[in-house]
Amino acid sequence: MEDDVAEQRAEVLRRALDEYNLDDDDLEVLEGDFADDGTFLMPALPVLAVVGRPNVGKSALVNRILGRREAVVEDVPGVTRDRVSYRAEWGGRHFTLVDTGGWEPDARGIDRSVAEQAEIAIELADAVLFVVDANVGPTSSDEHVVKMLRKSDRPVLLLANKVDDLVQEPNAATLWGLGLGEPWPVSALHGRGVADMLDEAMRILPEVSKVAKQEVGGPRRVAIVGRPNVGKSSLLNKAAGEERVVVNDLAGTTRDPVDSLVEIGGRVWRFVDTAGIRKRVHLQQGADFYASLRTATAIDKAEVAVVVFDVTEPLGVQDVRIVDMVLQSGRALVLAFNKWDELDDERRWQLEREIEQDLKHVAWAPRVNISAKTGRHLEKLVPALTVALESWDTRIPTGKLNAFLTELTQELPHPLRGGKQPRVLFATQAQTRPPTFVLFTTGFLDPGYRRFIQRRLREVFGFVGTPIQINMRVRERRKRK
Q: Which has the closest alpha carbon to 440: 25, 35, 34, 33?
């Protein structure tokens, strides 16, 4: 059917709908509009990095500055591992606040990787907040940090943290010996002295960053999710072409979502590495609990989620639960099967059976077989992301949608229920991201029939890589006066 004919028929169906009882929400859906998102450039915000040795209260201070519990905080050293950026505001000025892991000299293993991320954060900052525990006083680790800060030639504010009251304020005087000028007594826990410190930080921060790149305002947000140790951080590092996040064989290395602007396939993407989801949130505790909550938030803020699987291990209940979490959030979906270079023929056969059984409900999602360690087939991720996002943004013209449903319901009508047959009066796409359709009907449509409509929508219009939502509005004909 030609487009103009389809639109004319849809208009007839729309006018016929006026004979039914419609409320204000119905009219809002029928007269809805769509807005396009574009990519644009924004000024490079000044960068303020928070550094110090482990367990001096850096993440607590970050939460106090942000005014919300964003960074994971626990009363054990080494909770923060990556350098995590947050958008912050003080006194009408916006800036980027960077939380880092604890820096220690002569660190080994994962602690060495954490320290390297803190060093990178200093080099990529316009100013630094150096946090010291005033109750402990300056340590040899603090003195090593001072040497590193002097080499960087960045403006530094020395913060004497954990000064909760006037009685403890003299403790801050011991930090004069570090040679960084007057220490600012603050309490990240209670907020004491933080406002004055931020006023001084705004004074030394430039209006536009001298080190950060001009920020791309509209790149697509990609969340990398999966169980612990499946290769999420390795995937981000390989895509970024640098050691952006800490990678270690220890499961659960990542705890805070880490944003990175990555250029792949000639496009800029905002990749978000997330903490691995071990088990149900209500069964978790401590840092794992808060990390899981932030992973769920990162999925909600993303546009497409790449669920990473370790092909060397059988697909489990947790893998399916993570996929379902993405579906519930309404985000576009790409399935990435990592460590493909380690797969043998027997395991490949088993994997195909597992996918057919456990991931049958997302057979519409693009699938890529990659190796995050070697970069094998990483370029295939871009077409998968592109097609998933295009489907997520797809809008079907109302004329085509109603012509499709008219033909479909004539070909296979809804079964009789209680002697009556529900009819679809009119259909419209209420929104994209994800594609959401509203069907005005004379009766309730069975779940099986709605799944049939979804399946045929995919066959005709594609919708590769995106969930489809179908809502119903059962309406009765107005009584004649």
A: 25
Asked, as a colleague might, if the bond just before 434 is cis with ω within 30 of 0, I would say: yes
Pair 326, 382: CB distance under 8 Å: no
Contacts of 76 (CB under 8 A, 6+ apart): 55, 287
pTM to 2 decimals?
Answer: 0.64
Q: What is the mean pLDDT of the chain?
A: 83
Residue 334 banded pLDDT, cuts 50, 70, 90: very high
**Residue 95 φ/ψ, nearest 5 degrees:** -155, 165
Q: Convert the pLDDT of each residue in 80-123 to its tens digit.
A: 445 677 888 898 888 989 888 777 666 555 556 656 777 888 88
- 284 falls in which pLDDT band (50, 70, 90)? very low
Structure tokens at 140: 């040899």
Among the listed residues 125, 146, 136, the one whose alpha carbon sits nearest the alpha carbon of residue 201:
125
The DSSP secondary structure of 389-454, one letter per residue, reads: HHHHT----HHHHHHHHHHHHHHSPPPPBTTB---EEEEEEEETTTTEEEEEESSPPPHHHHHHHH
> How far is 102 from 110, CA to CA, in rounded Å?
11
Burial label, 139 (beta-carbon count in 10 A; 0-12, 13-18, 19+): middle
